[in-house]
Amino acid sequence: MEHIVIIGNGISGVTLARHLRKLSDKKITIISAETDYFFSRTALMYVYMGHMKFEHTQPYENWFWEKNRISLKKAYVKQVDTEAKTLHFAEGDSLNYDKLVIATGSKPNKFGWPGQDAKGVMGMYHKQDLEHLEEHAPNNEVCKRAVIVGGGLIGIELAEMLNSRSIPVTFLVRENSFWNGVLPQGESEMINRHIKNHHIDLRLSTNLKAINTDENGKVKSVIIEETGEELACNVVGLTAGVTPNIDFLKDSGIELGRGVKVNRYLETNIPDVYAIGDCAEQHEAIGNRRPIEAVWYTGRMMGEVLAQTICGNKMTYNPGHWFNSAKFLDIEYQTYGWVFGERGRPEYEQHFHWKHEDDTKCITVAYHKESQKFLGINTFGIRMRHEVFDRWLTEQRDVDYVMYHLSEANFDPEFYSRFEKDILKSYTNQPQLAKS
Question: Where is the FAD/NAD(P)-binding domain (predicted)?
Answer without folding.
Answer: 3-285
